[in-house]
Specification:
The complex is a heterodimer of chains A (659) and B (388). Chain A is 62% helix and 11% strand. Chain A has 659 residues and is α+β, with helices and mostly antiparallel strands. Chain A has 4 domains: 160 residues, no CATH class; 212 residues, no CATH class; 134 residues, no CATH class; 100 residues. In chain A, helix 9 packs antiparallel against helix 10. In chain B, helix 1 runs antiparallel to helix 4, helix 6 runs antiparallel to helix 7 and helix 7 runs antiparallel to helix 8. The two termini of chain B are 73 Å apart. Chain B contains 19 helices and no strands. Chain B folds into 4 domains: 96 residues, no CATH class; 84 residues, Serine Threonine Protein Phosphatase 5, Tetratricopeptide repeat (Alpha Horseshoe); 57 residues, no CATH class; 86 residues, Serine Threonine Protein Phosphatase 5, Tetratricopeptide repeat (Alpha Horseshoe), CATH 1.25.40. Chain B is mainly α. The chains are: A alpha+beta (659), B mainly alpha (388). At the A-B interface, helix 1, helix 2, helix 3, helix 7 and helix 10 of A face helix 1, helix 2, helix 3, helix 4 and helix 5 of B.
Chain lengths: 659, 388
């Protein structure tokens, strides 16, 4: 009964969304306040109904109700409870349900918290938001209904792909989707503004925090995915430039640009039209990501052609919202009032540079992702655009971005003092130079560019530290004054500093681990030893053990450093019962200077096992950097004050740019 | 009945909540210009607060204030008071229509759609309920589930495994069948039926190739029942797959000679023998074991078969695609020694040993003349124990 009640709730949600599109939109155009107000209860009801549907499906998973097709295909009675719950979104139908749930959550948040929005704007935003919901609810009900039933019910389910039975991956999709779908708010505001023909002052005040929230979740979602790939796939790699990864990375790049331009807009009322365009593009890239992952084009273009119902439907959604949004922009943008003016060398100017570079980078990734698919679709030829392409195109775009990153915050709004900013950054240049020399001295291996990459990361980190030191007047004020200023510094400023510092760490981690990774592969018999970057690793043996729904061969390694045992690592190979598939579990010893990473392979004919041992220097900096960015975003988000940017007066140099 | 009451209640509550704003008297909405000015006033307050806290200098605060002041002026100019609607009466009628239409259409349409797509009356069937009721019901699936549940708790119950094994086999779950037969043999002893069942399940699982463990089981059956025909047929096939073609042909001939006139397997054996005659002409009688992989489908390995049947699960597709992309890239340009090393290792990790061996051969062919590359590939081959 729960299942059927959830199904009904989902259908009712679709119709509520239809009402939420039509009634407030008409209300806004005939200026009837009552009709506009319908949007609020509609948005809240929609959330309520989709939540009922979602929990009904989750209930079916938890109780192993195999009369639900979706449960039978993706769950198994022996699966641990947490993966039964996570199994809800571990498959196509359930993940679409999660998608609309989060969409409705954001819509309801606008309805509940948007009391200070102009009524017309709010009604239109909610109508646009509901139109996205209509599209995806229809998609769900018509092509991928999670509530399809089976009678009689099969004895047991097929099980969840074991590779997905992992804590990091269980919670990766909700974060990622919150990020993707969060950009729908920016999109809805952009379309509403275009329909209105004006951009209200309240616009940026709303778009900036919502974009920031979406960006945070996307950041941590991508980081979790990469972390999972690192320890679960057993390759020791953390990013593969795979279409699935690119699908989430493109909206992240565009979203990062949007975040910065929305900030300019809130603080300075500049870059208004550009921000609107960027909001449309960012959400379009989110939809594109959904299309790439959910349509089946990934497995192969042919499987897409064999069962085109889903792919074509979601392509139609993509075309409708992207095409419609851009067409509306083309018609209405010229009627919009452009915002404030600024000089090229200014905080605004540096943020424009940031935007241009980020959007170009997103376009690069887009080409690298879609070109192979298009080629396969047209000619049937399968090519792979791997890391070489992205290293050649994406990498060089990041260099000027990172160089400019610490300079931007040093410039004043409206007109900045470039020489002054450079002088203040002297320490950062110094730190980078020291790092450069030190790395060259310590590591003769690896590409010659790598020390420069590490120096660049150090420079970004030092830049963030200097920015803070400058603002609290370290060096010119007394200790008490510094503490007072540090306390008074707005949380939003701390958020920026942390996020920028996190980027620096990320860069250091990426360069170090890519350039200086150590790799050993050899067949080892119990008792044999291998030396990996100062660690003395002894293979003691393999034991078989039984898990809740798998058997595993657990290898045991004794890791010594300077004669002392520092860790026992137990990488294993699991064979799951249903579906019968094997996975590798790596054994990782994490230290500050890097990870020792062990993977056990197949038994070898002459006895012994294939063992792969890696040393990944500073690899944790990658996820630590992402985590710091996430925390920075959270701190900034917790600062509910308005952001006002004070312009610098002409011909007057101001030492410290103000918040 | 309870279900329909809940459905009606939900539909009614939602309809009521949504149409409520339409029933209330209209209150004039805040003008967009006013909303803008409210935001600017908030910004002025923010500047004052920053100034008080000392995070904003006096001069900067002043210029910021001046700028916001200009924005307020602009907003005040642009804002025009809307005329109170002169069509108030007409509008009210329109609202009434909208309100009634929504109240009727929303519940009715959702109910209609549900009747089309839903399965009202089909109760939920949580596994625990089904297991409890299984002995009373005669649904085979529930009975299987019941036995499985018992075996999970008592994996030492050999009779249970013996009962469930043929059921698995009949429903195409060959992996489960093989395991179940194996457990039954281990726990309650060998019988020709169990050994034969195990071998059949294994052979099905390997898409017709007779694997080593199945061959041993079949030989054991012959020891117990020297006159059994079925194991002899499979063993002959195994010889053919091993490339021992002449021995296989001799066995086939013997089996055909002994077979009754209308034995169903007679035709099959004759076909095999005929095809063998063709192949045996080209292949030396002592053909090496490498002839076997040629006959094997690429999915001969259970790991590979599992990966291939994975469906569109994104992460799985991801790994396979990554490897396939690499393979196709190397096919068009085979000069990349690092690429070959990666590919061979990938196949090894995925358990596709045959592909790994083939990639090794291809790599050696492609890297002719590239001493460094060849050395890398060879040392990898030694590490992985992939023959030379």
């Amino acid at each position: 009964m729960f299942v059927e009640f959830g199904h009904f709730a989902l259908i009712l949600a679709l119709l509520v969304a239809v009402v939420q599109v039509i009634v407030p939109a008409i209300g806004a155009s005939i200026k009837d306040e009552r009709m506009m107000r319908v949007a609020d209860p509609a948005a809240v009801s929609q959330l309520f109904l989709i939540a009922i549907a979602f929990f009904a499906l989750m209930h079916a998973y938890v109780t192993s109700d195999f009369s639900v097709l979706n449960v039978a295909e993706n769950s198994h009675s022996t699966k641990p409870l947490i993966y039964k719950m996570a199994g809800v979104w571990g498959n196509h139908e359930g993940s679409m349900l999660l998608w609309v749930l989060i969409l409705a959550l954001f819509g309801a948040a606008v309805a509940v918290f948007g009391n200070n929005l102009p009524v017309t704007l709010k009604a239109r935003v909610l109508a646009v938001q509901a139109s996205i919901a209509v599209a995806f609810l229809l998609f769900s009900l018509l092509t991928s209904n999670p509530f399809a039933r089976l009678d009689p019910a099969p004895a047991d389910g097929h099980g969840l792909n074991p590779i997905l039975q992992d804590p990091a991956l269980a919670f990766h999709p909700p974060f990622l989707y919150t990020g993707y779908v969060g950009f729908s708010i920016a999109f809805s505001f952009a379309i509403a503004a275009l329909i209105e023909g004006r951009i209200d002052a309240a616009w940026a005040r709303w778009v900036r925090p919502w974009t920031l929230a979406a960006w945070m979740f996307l950041t941590i979602g991508i980081a979790m995915g990469s972390w999972w790939a690192y320890y679960e796939l057993g390759w020791g790699g953390w990013w593969f430039w795979d279409p699935v990864e690119n699908a989430s990375f493109m909206p992240w790049l565009a979203g990062t640009a949007l975040l910065h331009s929305a900030l300019v807009m809130e603080k300075r009322e500049a870059l208004k039209i550009w921000t609107v365009l960027l909001a449309i593009l960012t959400f379009s890239l989110s939809l594109m990501g959904t299309f790439i992952v959910r349509s089946g084009v990934l497995t192969s273009v042919h499987s897409f052609a064999v069962d085109p119902a889903r792919g074509v439907f979601i392509l139609a959604i993509l075309v409708l919202f992207t095409g419609g949004g851009l067409a509306l922009f083309a018609f209405r943008a010229k009627d919009m009032q452009a915002g404030g003016l600024f000089q090229p060398i200014s905080r605004e100017g540096s943020l424009v540079l940031n935007n241009l570079l980020l959007v170009t980078a997103a376009a690069t990734v887009l080409v690298g992702t879609l070109y192979p698919m298009a080629l396969e679709g047209l000619t049937g030829e399968k090519i792979s655009v791997g890391p070489p392409f992205f290293n050649m195109t994406f990498g060089p775009l990041m260099i000027p971005l990172l160089i400019a990153l610490p300079i931007g915050p040093m410039l004043a709004w409206k007109r900045g003092d470039f020489t002054g900013a450079m002088q203040r950054l002297a320490f950062a240049f110094g730190a980078a130079l020291v790092a450069l020399v030190a790395v060259f001295a310590a590591e003769y291996r690896g590409p010659w560019l790598a020390p420069f990459g590490i120096a660049l990361g150090i420079y970004v980190m030092a830049g963030a530290a200097i920015e803070w030191a400058n603002r609290v007047k370290v060096g010119s004020a007394g200790f008490d004054e510094i503490v007072r200023r540090a306390k008074n510094l707005p949380r939003s400023a701390y958020g920026t500093l942390l996020a920028h510092f996190g980027i620096g760490m990320l860069v250091v981690g990426i360069v170090a681990t890519s350039a200086y990774r150590e790799e050993h592969i050899q067949a080892m018999k119990p008792g044999e030893r291998i030396a990996v970057n100062g660690y003395d690793v002894t293979f003691t043996g393999v034991e078989r053990a039984r898990g809740p729904n798998y058997v595993e061969d657990i290898a045991d390694f004794d890791v010594k450093h300077d004669g002392d045992t520092v860790a026992r690592l137990t990488p294993s190979k699991r064979l799951y019962d249903a579906p019968p598939q094997s996975t590798t579990e790596s054994g990782i010893y994490a230290a500050w200077r890097g990870d020792l990473y062990l993977v056990i392979g197949d038994p070898q004919p002459g006895g012994g096992y294939a063992v792969r041992a890696y040393f990944n220097p500073l690899v944790r900096f990658i996820w630590l950097g992402a985590l710091i960015m996430f925390i920075g975003g959270g701190i900034s988000l917790s600062d509910r004050r308005l952001r006002v940017g004070a312009p610098a007066k002409a011909r007057q140099s101001i030492a410290v740019p103000a918040e | 009945m309870v279900f329909w009451i809940l459905v009606a209640g939900l539909a009614a509550a939602v309809t009521l909540a949504i149409t409520r704003p339409l029933m209330r008297p209209s209150t004039p909405a805040m003008d967009a210009g006013d909303a803008d000015i409210a935001v600017y006033k908030d910004q002025l307050k923010e500047i004052a607060a920053d100034e008080a806290r000392g995070t904003l200098g006096v001069a900067e605060a002043e210029s910021a204030r001046a700028e916001i002041g200009r924005r307020i002026l602009r907003a005040a100019e642009g804002s025009s008071r809307p005329e109170p609607s002169s069509r108030a009466a007409g509008q009210n009628r329109f609202i009434q229509t909208v309100s009634i239409a929504t109240s009727i259409a929303l519940p009715l349409a959702s109910l209609a759609l549900y009747l089309v797509y839903g399965a009202p009356g089909l109760p939920g069937q949580p596994l625990s309920d089904r297991l409890a009721a299984a002995t009373d019901s005669n649904k085979p699936n529930d009975l299987i589930a019941k036995v499985e549940e018992r075996l999970r708790e008592h994996p030492e119950d050999g009779m249970g495994w013996d009962v469930i094994a043929p059921v698995y086999y009949a429903t195409g779950q060959y992996d489960g069948a093989a395991t179940a037969y194996q457990n039954a043999i281990r726990l309650i002893g060998e019988t020709p039926r169990r050994l034969q069942g195990f071998a059949n399940a294994r052979i099905h699982l390997e898409n017709g190739i007779v694997p080593e463990d199945a061959r041993k089981a079949l030989e054991r059956v012959l020891q117990l029942e020297p006159n059994a025909t079925e194991p002899r047929i499979w063993l002959a096939l195994a010889k053919e797959q091993d490339g021992r073609l002449q021995e296989a042909a001799a066995d086939y001939r013997k089996l055909i000679d002994e077979a009754p006139e209308h034995a169903p397997w007679r035709k099959v054996l004759e076909d095999r023998l005929a095809s063998l005659g063709k192949d045996a002409g080209g292949v030396p009688a002592s053909g090496s074991a490498t002839a076997a992989p040629a006959a094997a489908p690429p999915a001969g390995n259970p790991d590979a078969a599992a990966i291939m049947s994975m469906g569109p699960e994104e992460r799985q597709a991801f790994i396979t695609r990554m490897v396939d992309n690499l393979a196709s890239r190397l096919k068009s340009d085979g000069s990349d020694a690092e690429g070959w090393v990666k590919l061979i290792r990938a196949y090894q990790v995925l358990g596709r040993r045959d592909d790994a061996v083939k990639a090794l051969t291809d790599a050696r062919a492609n890297l002719k003349g590239n001493e460094v590359g060849l050395a890398k590939v060879d040392s990898l081959a030694r590490q992985l124990g992939l023959g030379s």
